[in-house]
Structures are given as structure tokens and as C-alpha cells.
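Input set for joint prediction.
Command: fold jointly, output C-alpha cells.
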Amino acid sequence: MKIYVPLDSAAVALGADKLAETIVAEGAARGVAVQIVRNGSRGMVWLEPLVEVATEAGRVGFGPMTVADVPGLFGDLGSHPKALGLVEDLPWMKGQTRLTFARVGVIDPLSLEDYRAHGGLVGLDRAKGMTKAQIVAEVTDSGLRGRGGAGFPTGIKWKTVSEAAGDQKYIVCNADEGDSATFADRMLMEGDPFTLIEGMAIAGLACGSTKGYVYIRSEYPVAIRVMDAAVKIARDAKVLGPAFDMEIRVGAGAYVCGEETSLLNSLEGKRGVVRAKPPLPALQGFMGRPTVVNNVISLASVPVIMAKGAAYYKDFGLGRSRGTIPLQIAGNVKHGGLYEVAFGLTLGQIVNEIGGGTASGRPVKAVQVGGPLGAWFPPSLFDTPFGYEEFGAKDGLIGHAGLTIADDSIDMLQMARFAMEFCAIESCGKCTPCRIGAVRGVETLDRLAAGDASAIPLITDLCNTMKSGSLCALGGFTPYPVMSAITHFPDDFARAKEAAE
Amino acid sequence: MLDSHVHSDRIAEILEAHRGLEGPLLPILHAIQEAFGHVPDSAVPQIAAALTLSKAEVHGVISFYHDFRAAPAGRHVLKLCRAEACQTMGADAVAERIKKALGIDWHETTADGRVTLEPVFCLGLCACGPAAMVDGRLVGRCDESVLAEVAK
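C-alpha cells >
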């Protein structure tokens, strides 16, 4: 019997390890030979731990599984109380276009044979027969933009590094996924690590780089373990070697290190302080040398682009947002998880149709799109299509495509205050608008909460200063959640005033 | 003094094991914390000498990052996520009840040395919050029952 039990952090946090042990013990007690595969997650977090049993008809899912549900797996599967049917046929799976996440949840993440059998390494093999310029052109033509949040065209970044002079160049993967509501990087690294390795190897070929680093945040122990193991396997199989090799590095709990220049300082063993740009990291990055710094999902999208061609990828999406985006639907949501789809769904479709509304059953009040530095959207803006420019036009951003859904019990003044508090805790201290502004922001919002309406123009002015005067997105984008809360939810700010009167 | 000799030998081993890395300081600090549960002050001059940095530079790096501790933690470390997605699922209220039950605030350790309570900003478990980490083990849909795991 072949049984899949995810090793994904979310599944583990909901009891998957204990479940795997119990299944093995139950099989042994019954004299049934059980092969357990620890796969990635299919992304349906509300069904985790989601166990799959391989049958002649396909993989049948059961979830959310508890230890008490294990004996039933050895009986009539169809009558199991947690039976979901064929996993591939579930609406959540059928509605998606899984390009970057095609293998996540499907394969054994640490089996290179599985990876090859599901189309892995085709992109790298093709890239090996191409010139640097041809690879760069393919990525540029695909329309792929940085999935970490900035949305900068990946091909242009690669071109700069590829054409830069330098004996040693670097490919650095930014896996410091610190934004609340985002877990796509984590799921990809845990569920299909070879895709990231392959993407980085292709980047190495395109840019003439022989060395890569993956900087993973310390809050992701499972991802670190899987990536470490995958790099060793890839090295043993000669996928990595003298032509291109890589190391896994672990962060140390500083949110700001998700900013590319502060990440580079951290990687060099320094304080994770932001660097002023220019010089661009593409020209003077890690150790002062030309460096590609790309997000996990950007790099992990490259193999499919190289395997199927730029046109195939570019065909998905809308406007200048090409390809697919792994939406991470989180917070107070009925059906939370990862849903990869072409750009262009409206926010309302994502929240209400895919997410199914709130977990609490209460009305949706606000959705924060793009992590702690993203704007809060009210239901009146639910017709906004999911794309970089489309969200920009509504004074928001898509960031790393995480969505935090909140019901009507949320207090937007408190959320605005939290944004400033978080910025104050995590500021690297390099620039004044962020370092001082965030502290003053908390104080000013406390004045507002105490009923001092004169604090509104002050916080607006402070946000303008932070937005235009900060060195990086931490100070520069903290005004998004603050000002969107004030703009779209004025009642929460007026209530405080009434309370004081 | 015996302790600091033991420290110093182990730190020398760690420094040796990281020779040749580009930007070795964070891996070294992680290894030291793994070995001792914290980064002892006595390590700073030794690291500085090995990497030809000033003691101030090494101290500056240690103090910049939330992960590195100057003193040992309690027997258990309980990290509760404070970020937005977990807040929408009631993380603040859970944290308040846990603080009250333990009688400590963030970054504090119970008087009996049993538990250290720390905030964490996102464990990537945002669709099954509130999230927590108990001695390195992940917990989804966390509530006060997590206290049972740090009871001894």
C-alpha cells in the first residue's frame, strides 16, 4: 500500500508526523506492507493533514485526518468518513493552472527520479544547448516579473548581470519569506526543491555564474532541512557541480533581510542593514560582485518557461502581468491555502469563490493584499483584477500574492497601529523616516485612538514622508496598510473620537 | 573557568569548521548557539580574532538579529505568531491568556526557568493560524492547550 502523508509545515503543524507514525504502526499490526511517501502539500490547508492512498483509479484523498481515522484506511476506502475522492478531481485542484507548482504535492520532494519522471531537468537540458543571450531572451520574452513583490522584469535583471564584467558572479535566492499570509516559497522548497535548484542552475548558465546561495529564514525549519538534503542529492547526481554549485544559508529572524540589499549584507555576515542604491546588486552585489537576487518563485518558474517556451508562459495572465501567480489565501478564511492561477481573477472571486468567505462565517470586512506592507482592501474594491498595475491603480500592491482575510470583528485602527509597531520593531535603523517615523507613527495612532482627531493630518503627513523618504520598502510601504485603513475604514477611526467625546 | 575553557575549545572547533566559507559569521553564530543554547560574551573576542573583525563589529551583528541570545533561554521556548493573518484568527487573545497563565510578558522567562515566551512574525502557517512553535515543533490552530507541552 502506498500512502502519501505531507511533510509540509502546515500539515506537520496539524499533526502529519504523528499520523505517519500511526499509519506505519497500524500497517505493521495488520501485517500490511505500507510505503509512506512524505510529499509536499496540495495547498488545501483546511483539509490538512491530507492523506492520499494510491489506487488503480488514482490517488484518493482523506482529510482532515486524525489519528482516529487511520484504521479506516485499511478497510473500505469508499466508505471512510474523511474520503474526498480523487484528489486531482477536487474543484480546488481542477480550477488551477499549476505551472510553477505542477509537482508540489504530487512527487516525493527528495526523489530526483520522481522529479525527472514529472518533467524535471528538461528546462536545464535545453538551456545547456543555448547561449547566455538566448536564455536571457527566453526569460525576458516570457514576461516573468519578480514574484517577491517588486515585480521587476526577471530577464532584464539577468541581462544586466550576464553582461556585467566580473570573474565571479553570484545567483542569490531570496527565501526570506517574512510577509504574513505568504507561504508559497516555503511550500515550493518543501514540496519540490529541485525546481528551485534547476532554476538557479539555469540562472547560473544565463549569467555566467558558478555559485549560488539560498538565504532561507530560520522560521522555516522544514524548508531548510529539505533544501539541504536536496542540494546534497543534486550534487551526488552531478546536477550541481563545478559548473554551478550552491549553498543553503539560514537567516536569523530579521524581517528586513527580505529586502535584497540587506539580505546581501546578512549573507556577507554583517548587520542586515539596507544599502543605498545605486550601485545595483546586479553590478555590485554579494561581495561587491555582480549578483542576481531573485525570489524563490521567480527562480522556480524558470524551469517551466525553459521547458515549454516563453510563449507558452506568456499566454497566461492579463496586461503586463504575464503567466501564473501562486495566490496564498490566509487569515480568517474558510478554504485557505495555495492556489496557482493566471493573473486576472478579481479580488472578490479569490476571497468569496475560491476562499469561500471567512472561517468564522461572519462578513468579510477587509483583505490585506501583499503582506504587512500591503494595503487593506474593502469589499467595495473587490472588482479589482489581480495584477501588478491593477492593484497599483487602487493604491495597493500585490506583493508576494498573499491575502489576509479579516471578518467584521477586526479593528482597523489597531491594524494600522500594528503596521507601525511592526515597522518600528523590524526597522534596520539606516534611514530616519523609517527608524523614527515608525515610532512616531505608533504614538500618533495612539493619540487618534484616544480621540484626538487632529492626529489625522499628522499621520497623513508622516506617511507621505516615510513613503518618499525611506531607503527601502519597509519604511516606504508601511504607509500602505496605514493609509488604506484610514481611507477605506473611516468609521473605525471616528469611533475612537466619539468614545473620547 | 573550566566552563570557559570548554567553551573556547568548542568555539575553536566551530570556527575551524567554517573556514573557507564566504561570509561565515551567521553560520558560525548559529552553530555556537546550537552548541551552547546562546552566544556567550566570551565568544566575541575569539570570533573577532578569527575573522579579523573588531569586537564591536561582531557584537553589532549578534545584537542586530532577533535569533541570537546573550543568555540561555528557559527549558522550553514557546514562540507565538503575532502577525496579521494569525491576528485575524484571534492570536492576540490567545497570547494574552498564555501570558497571564505563565505570569510573564514577551521575551521573559518564568521564574522557575521553565518557559521563555517569544513573539515571532510569521511561521508561514497563515492559513491555519494562530501559529506557534514549541521547542522547534510547529503548531497550527494554537490555543492555550499548548501550555501542556511546556508544563514540565
